[in-house]
Structure formats: C-alpha cells, structure tokens
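Quick bug: non-specific serine/threonine protein kinase output formatted oddly.
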Amino acid sequence: MVNPRGILLNVESGPNDIRYRIKRVNRIIYVPVLNPDIIPEDRRTYGPSAIDELSKLEEWNDDSWNTLQVDQDENGVKCYKDVAHPHSVPVHYLLRRSIYDISTLRVIPGSSLVPKLLGYVSESSSAARIIGFLVEKVNGRHADLEDLEVSEAALDRLHISLVHGDLCKYNIIITDKGPKFIDLEDSVLVGADSWSDELRQKEKQGLATKLSNTSGLGRPWECQTG
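Here's what came back:
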C-alpha cells in the first residue's frame, strides 16, 4: 500500500537549505526548504521523520502544487507554491522523441552502431521534468581480440560522425547484428579536418590493445566478481 503522505526519494541537505524529492501516490513533488532550522536536525534526512515534519505544513495536503518552497521570517514559516522549478533538460535540447513516464517504461528492440534512442524519461507524460533517456536493450557479449576485424570496420563507420572517446573492450558489445558501441559520454563530434583525423587514427590504432587488455579496466561494476 502506498503511503498517502509520501515516500522520500532523495534529499540534499546542506548548511543553507534542504531539498526534498518525494513521491506522493502517483506524482512527484519537490520541497526546497530555504532555512534548515525549520526541520529539526535529527529529522531532516530520514524519510518518515522528514515527511512527518513536512506534513505539519498547512499547505501539505493541498494537491494543487508540484513544488512547495518553504522559508521562515520574523513572522514564522512561509510556504510558496510553484515559485521554484526542479532542474530539467531544456526542451530545445531534446530530439524529436517520445516522452516516457518513469512509471510506465517498456523496452523496444532496434539496431544500429549504438543503442537506439527510444525517448526521454520524465516524471510525468510531458517534458516538464526530464530525468534521463531510454535506449534499447542490447543483448550480446563484450568484444575480445578475436573481434578485432569486425570492430575496426564498425569503428570506421562510427568515425564518420564521432570519436568514441572512452573506448575499451567493455564498451563494444558484439551482437548477432554486429558490434554496438555503448557509454558515449566522452564522445566527440568530428569532421573533415586534420584534428578530427588525428583523433580517429589514435582511437583506431589503440583498438587492438584495448581488446587484448585483461586488467578489467572499464569493466561494468556488476561484472566484477572474485
């Protein structure tokens, strides 16, 4: 049974403010507390205790707001509805993809050099609060030295548009449809210039060494055993 008062998802407690992210039944709410002294120190970060304190606010049971900014002055505690907005990816940065409510995620297959971008993950059915992105599930195995030829060919195709930037054997998944590259956080867009050619050559020349590396460098955390 869902706690009607809410479930604390995360909290950032600092010397100047406390910021709560809370699930209330079927929606996510945000409560920035601009004066930490409003919440007793020993009750700020433990979910039930923090929500118990917040539920004492007169506005707490009003469902008309998504953010409730809480402050204090000489006249007491003050609450301001929806004057603060949670951080989100600006809409103009988003590609033309669907918005998926985090509570209704599904995985859809696809195929390309990288996992297919299916859409963005939001805390609602709109772009009001984008918290991540959704890509296809990739089934396969990590590349090894025996996959050098097919990996080089795939890397050449990838290099038409970008350099991976953090290539290792664990960032190449060998699937039944060929290699796929993952973990592109450090990738760099490249063009037809000497600087881009240098990046391409350096990455390709190091591929064999990366595939033969047995140190475990770059291995996903869940694969580290023994």
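Actually, after a second look the formatting is fine. The first helix runs from residue 47 to 54. Closing.
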